[in-house]
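tool=predict chain=A
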Amino acid sequence: MADRKKNAQNALALDIPGPRPTLLGLFLCVLYLGGPILILGNLVDLLFQLVLGWCIGLWCVF
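tool=predict ok
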């Protein structure tokens, strides 16, 4: 009986490491934050091209 209590106390005292940054997490943050910026920027470039005739988008280089 004493062994069970000792094992239960040891189990509760385990040191579990906290969350840490990973490459997948970094990729998802870049995608989540950078994706909408790229889409909005390209839409503004397209708007300028259609309305004013100025081609300022990345596709004008090629």
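The longest helix spans residues 23-51. The helical segments are 2-12, 23-51.
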